[in-house]
Amino acid sequence: MRRNVAMRPDFPWASYIGSGVGLIGIAWIVAYYFSDGALPVPSWEKWNLVAGIVLVSASIVAASRQK
To answer: At CA 34, angle to CA 63 and CA 14, rounded to 5?
Structure first.
């Protein structure tokens, strides 16, 4: 007897989105360090690091959607 197993849908664009978001996250962190906290958003102070890490984490999640 054969069961119908629900397969995870394939998102062919996931790797492109993951790569783009990851590069933006890395650029965010690099800009923060090279500008001594003056960029990308000066009022966020240390939260700029959190924003960069969230973007890099989101890229990993997006890339994991690819089969």
So the answer is: 10
Q: Residue 34 class from Cβ within 10 Å (0-12 exposed, 13-18 middle, 19+ buried)? A: exposed
Q: Is 58 exposed, middle or buried (0-12, 13-18, 19+ CB in 10 A)?
A: middle
Q: Indicate the DSSP class of residue 46.
A: T
Cis peptide before 40 (omega within 30 of 0): yes
Would you give the DSSP letter of residue 36? T
pLDDT tens digits for range 6-65: 666 677 788 889 999 999 999 999 999 999 989 999 999 999 999 999 999 999 998 887
Any alpha helices (H) in the chain, and if so which ranges?
A: 14-34, 47-63
Where is pLDDT greater, at 2 or 28?
28
